[in-house]
Task: inverse folding
């Protein structure tokens, strides 16, 4: 089953910048796709389109037009993990993670004990269980990024869209997030993430999409796409794909 399908998607911002130019690709359910590209290549614009924030035609989610999804139905299908988020109010970590349960709440909007347990478990998975009752405003940048992942885990959607999911993390938390995402992938979740880290793409993705100046340079399995030649073309700087102790290393 195709989890996502985009056909000939172009997007021009009101000021006239053409951010995406005839992008077409599809993602099978359970695949993990890395979107690589230089600054300004169109990665965030693509995520916004998949979230339905930038309206364009011909995007489908599990065979159904994205624009025909209701709010709660979309929330049960798709979760976003942004790099960061601005807080208007000072919630506790548990309260903030509970927002991930919104697509499942009744009309009254009151979370159940089960919702609280799911949120608590999600905080535990990202290593923030001890901070459950702390205000979100007290978090460091990396902890903030982990919290946003916890909220998406609590959302239990079929697809996760992640914007540079390890950008603020130290090596131990980077590895923790890689392991969480691998485990979600093994559970059959579909992942689509942007990154500037080609090693992360290679480690986590089954497929890689390379965006260059709004156009799709290539899309395919990571083995097909992640080559020294393709990365050098993508970033316009010398890149090498090598092997160190039996592991692929990109530098
Ligand atoms: N709100 C906006 N109004 C006008 N132009 C925009 C807007 N947002 C993005 N752009 C432009 O669209 C292009 C694509 O931007 P986008 O943010 O999608 O790139 P990106 O690949 O996510 O970059 P980065 O890696 O730097 O985050 C860029 O040229 C950018 O300047």
Result:
């Amino acid at each position: 089953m195709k989890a996502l399908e985009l056909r000939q998607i172009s997007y021009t911002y009101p000021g006239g910048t053409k951010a995406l130019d005839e992008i077409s690709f599809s993602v099978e359910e359970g695949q993990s796709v890395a979107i690589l590209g230089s600054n300004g290549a169109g990665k965030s614009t693509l995520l916004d389109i998949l979230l339905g924030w930038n309206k364009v035609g011909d995007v489908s989610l599990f065979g159904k037009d994205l624009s025909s999804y209701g709010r709660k139905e979309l929330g049960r299908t798709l979760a976003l993990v942004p790099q960061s988020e601005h807080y208007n109010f000072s919630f506790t970590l548990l309260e903030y993670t509970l927002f991930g349960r919104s697509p499942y709440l009744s009309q009254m909007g009151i979370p159940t004990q089960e919702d609280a347990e799911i949120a608590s478990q999600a905080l535990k998975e990202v290593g923030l269980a001890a901070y459950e009752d702390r205000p979100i405003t007290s978090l460091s940048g990396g902890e903030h990024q982990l919290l946003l992942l916890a909220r998406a885990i609590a959302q239990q959607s079929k697809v996760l869209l992640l914007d540079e999911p390890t950008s603020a993390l130290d090596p131990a938390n980077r590895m923790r997030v890689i392991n969480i995402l691998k485990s979600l992938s093994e559970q059959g979740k579909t992942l689509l993430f942007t990154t500037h880290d080609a090693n992360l793409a290679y480690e986590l993705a089954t497929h890689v999409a390379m965006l260059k100046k709004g156009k799709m340079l290539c899309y395919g399995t990571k083995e097909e796409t992640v080559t020294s030649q393709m990365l050098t073309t993508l970033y316009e700087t010398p890149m090498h794909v090598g092997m160190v102790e039996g592991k692929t290393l990109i530098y």
